[in-house]
Amino acid sequence: MGRILLIDDDRGFTDFLSGYIRDTYPLLQVEICNNPVAALQRIKAGGYDLLLIDLEMPSMDGLKLLMFATRTGMDKNRIVILSGRDANVLHDICPMGTCLAVLNKFEARQKAVLDMIFSSLPVISG
């Protein structure tokens, strides 16, 4: 329980966000996948409580990963799309109900939304 898969081709961002999650939520387990095609196998294997998916990546975009994840049984309300695009543009691309949230990964105020999501996850018992 409490497993997060972070999929983003930007290694600097994945290192930053995974470090934040590990430091702030030590009972959550975060795995990084910098290759969206490689993420397909992990998603198919299942067992994740949350997917954090970058919208724009080479070889496969986040919307295709979102569709794949939901087709393999992942609840869309356990998927967050992240992007550097403006929030209004993001909501045009991913209307409400497409997934749990669509967030600009560089806007500080959106961190509060991620914190609420992380706090709602089941934790790994030790």
UniProtKB/TrEMBL annotation:
SUPFAM superfamilies, sorted: CheY-like
Residue positions where 4-aspartylphosphate is found in the record: 54
Transmembrane portions of the chain: none
Gene Ontology biological process terms from the UniProt entry: phosphorelay signal transduction system
Keyword Lipoprotein among UniProt keywords: no
Coiled-coil intervals, chain numbering: none
Cross-referenced Gene3D superfamilies: 3.40.50.2300
InterPro entries with a match to the protein in the record: Bact_response_regulator (IPR050595), CheY-like_superfamily (IPR011006), Sig_transdc_resp-reg_receiver (IPR001789)
Keywords associated with the record: Phosphoprotein
Ranges where the Response regulatory domain occurs: 3-126
A Pfam family this chain is assigned to: Response_reg
Family matches, as PANTHER family: STRESS RESPONSE REGULATOR PROTEIN 1, TWO-COMPONENT RESPONSE REGULATOR
Protein name: Response regulator receiver protein
Organism field: Pelobacter propionicus (strain DSM 2379 / NBRC 103807 / OttBd1)
